[in-house]
């Protein structure tokens, strides 16, 4: 019986299987067996497997019809009924193991039950990017349990058969939106299996989404090229030297507010750096012997340390933009081939608005499809910021031809369409992104909803926000935005429901208090509006909008002195709050203080000279003061930009009547009735 079984799930990659299997056959550890698990494969795959099985008795092919998702149930069946080896490892049908992978994995699995090595991505431009992760990091374990992120893919993981059989369930059909490997890894973490992270290169991964439209021969040639390179004596040194590290898992999901150095960040995740010289890298087996399996060791060169430290310092705000730019510039001089360093430097210039420099740094000397999505994203940002839309659009479209599922590229293309005054095209692009990238459904829906709001499509925006609420039932922002969309649509009851849910989830939402009070005041429910306003002011005592609504509540309750006090306080914090001027004037007029109302209106117009509502209140004060000619002049000014002002027509009728010109009063009433046909006051003026 062999020591280790290698499972290779396959569906339709066909010829890349040859290269994946060849990388197994070239292992320094040869006591293995291979099971290729066919999940609804084409005939070409069967032909290849017939040939490979005939040439090597250690290779077995099991042909299954297309199963749910990725045929995970077939893997479980094999492990339980056919495989008897103590150790199990996995390899994707389009990845490559380095020659020492199985030697490292089998030695580690003698000490633990679940292990992975350093996840390395080979991007389409040839750059090498590694993910930093540790199965002993509390924050990463949380991410795994929540099915968010693991930090390593299928080809990098392995486990004992005994630990697998001890799980309540092993491989099973994975929920939509979750990676199949992550779903299994989470079960080992939940079971508190003895585990370890060995952060040394043993495998290279070729992400399929980046290469989605590549012809089969292009994919095959890429793998052949890297397989041949991996056999060189100095390949491990090449990897160590050229790796860029992705530290998003270390930084994005934990509280790093107290972190000031790279060493502190690593300690937070139970990692330790073993400084290395890339030209004299110790053999993988020696590296394994150094490892304390409860701590993940990283081998970083001086330059890699500098890059990671800069990422860390920028993330926690411990370095000024100018100093960061200077240090990235120096590092770029040392690693000009490193696209990650180039991108980091370009972002520094972008933060300062120097987009022409960003464009020059990232200038394309190959077709866009030869670069990573991240590279093209920032390059497109630079072009868009400079208004070079005609250049940015074909660049994005060319890159999307290779990665049509890229939501990030699609959102930038949507922004270009919007700036080119093609809003419907922008919406169509975002809807395409939603269909193609289910994992980014939430941010895409957010962007689509925001775009619909910008275009005034509040019904479509409301639909998007309601979908977000279904996806994030405990996220108050979606309820708030849905409420605002309902406000624009005049659906008061629906808006009040969304706003109430917003405040239940998070009472620190000033806009929710403001709009709730505004709606209740409009519905003639001033007592309820007053109570909501007072609650909101307990959290936001200086919010002029909420205090204005409190004043309006007092006004509707005929508490005019209290209303005036609230309006004064609102105007202290925001002298441009037109609603406060309007309702303060009304309160003063109700208190029979038209001179004071006139003064308030004039003050308001000095701050808001184009506000028709304040101008109507100035006219109202003139009518109370029997200055009818002045009132009519102000009313004409108020009605020109907005003829839908009921009070303005009523005041016109009153003024013309007082000036003993009933025909003109009747004419003003008739104009008003064309906008407000059911108003009885205007009807009375028409009837004489």
Task: Please explain how this structure is put together.
- It is a single chain.
- This protein is α/β, with parallel strands linked by helices and 688 residues long.
- It has a domain at 4-308: Spore Coat Polysaccharide Biosynthesis Protein SpsA, Chain A (Alpha-Beta Complex).
- Helix content is 59%, strand content 9%.
- It has 35 helices and 14 strands.
- The strands form 4 sheets. It has a 7-stranded mixed β-sheet. A 3-stranded mixed β-sheet has the order 7-8-12.
- Strand 1, helix 1 and strand 2 form a beta-alpha-beta unit.
- The radius of gyration is 34 Å and the shape is elongated.
- The mean pLDDT is 92.
Properties at a glance:
single chain; Spore Coat Polysaccharide Biosynthesis Protein SpsA, Chain A; three-stranded mixed sheet; 35 helices
